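Moderator note: this is an archived Q&A kept for reference. The question asked for a predicted structure of one protein chain; the sequence and the answer are reproduced below.
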Amino acid sequence: MANPMDIDCDKVDECTLSLLYLVTSQDKYGSRAWKSFGWATMDRLHEKGYISDPKSKAKSVAVSEEAVSRARELFEQFFAKQGGDRAA
């Protein structure tokens, strides 16, 4: 693994946010995502205002509307197949 001083945490945060898109669901209270990613990254996403505080007993975090939109955009940027081919 790279020395932590060599890691671009913003890129890690973007990738994590994009993957949160896969585990985000809607209910009558808004969007929520399972918090199964590294604590440091989840803390940074919370500090950026994308998710609720991950240091709760809940197994999921609330996801802001802005974060859902950004997560979808990043997910498509990083993982969508070229030419409109998409997995079901």
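Archived answer notes: Helices lie at 9-20, 39-47, 65-79.
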